[in-house]
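Weekend entry, working from home. Most of the wet-lab plans are on hold until the incubator is repaired, so I used the time to fold the two sequences that have been sitting in the queue since the last round of cloning. Logging both here for the record. First:
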Amino acid sequence: MLPIILTLIDDEDKISFEKIYEKYRLRIYNISFGILKSSELAEDAASETFLYLAKSYNRIKELEPHRLDYYILLTARNTALDMIKKEKKHRDNVPFDDDTMLTNAELERYDTEYLKECIKRLDFKEREILYLRFNCGLDFKTISAALGITAAAARKRLQYAKADLRKLLEGGEQHE
């Protein structure tokens, strides 16, 4: 909550936004959960909703209470629906897999030096997500906090990294 509040100008706005946050946080979460059917994604959607509201606070603070209520709840709904659209788009581009896509048995058939070279060919963000997930054993919520992205984005980034590593290992090119 603190970084969102820092985007507001004066103390009066901060107090006013905190009141909005307290009044709407559960409703926004419930709307998001109803659409996304995942508590983790609903939390991400609620955070994105409040970030958007904080950024546009100067425009919305003068709205009448019933219009503000409508605007906030509509923003929450649209944020959740946008997350579904993004998820479907990415799901179509990279097939979903679990953490066993590249198993130890699969990796053992490659020479260690070749494996290292393929990993070095990945971009920094892909190497970073692979390191955090597999070397450090971090969960997606922790990774998302460390990288400043949503948990859904962390999952997708890991999917792309694993797909690109597989392509490189098999002699192909990584995605653009």
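Second, folded right after the first finished:
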Amino acid sequence: MSLHIERIGQGEPLVMIHGWGMHSGMWMQARDLLSQYFELHLVDLPGMGYSENLDVYSLHTVAEKIAEEMPSNAYVLGWSLGGLIASKIALITPIKKLILVGSTPCFVARDDWQQGMPSDVFESFFAGAMQDYQGTMNKLLALIAMGSGNARATSKMLREALSLRPAPNQQGLLGALDILRTGDLRADLPRLEIPTLLIHGAHDKLASLSSAEWTVQSLPNAQLLALPSAAHEPFISHPELFSQEVTEFLHA
């Protein structure tokens, strides 16, 4: 299968990976700012946007597929589910630097991991996605924006961005949902020695700030930027600040 990867801008390659149920059109504001400094490789995850589905959909196969098709020794940035995938890419192929936005090494709570989303909340929230994708996404986009300084405007921008491309196929949604449900890279973090920046909204309702604080302690070479007035989507609520911090970190 082929991945849809949009390439824009000039400079060193920066691969950007979106979140669950979405597509690379979600980067619309940050894309225009970052493409002045980098050659952006905007990935549509398998089964989403314009990308075809993978036969075997797992954290490893998705990361492997993106690693095959992206430029060597690139910068990689992932948001939410995309951050989990970006971390896996960094574990299997050499990259220059890693940026994790509103992400966590393990999305669902475990007995030894209280920083994740309670599993009953996760299941009840996402269970409706197969029957009612649009309804689930509307709830998800409202939750993503909740807590940011301008939640209503941000939620509207997210909905507009989402409508730019076709809805994902069922296999892609289910496969990516299973990665969120079962993915757990906590034990692998000490092996990620590349410079890493975590950008996290202090009011994030989907990936807790405490999970980012735990992650930055577990990575050998990482820093955390917590944005006090942001939620799960800092690149939409604070595009200029987001792009500036990304650029400064990658050029440092």
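Plan for Monday: verify the second prediction. The beta strands are 5-8, 12-17, 38-43, 75-79, 98-101, 196-201, 222-227.
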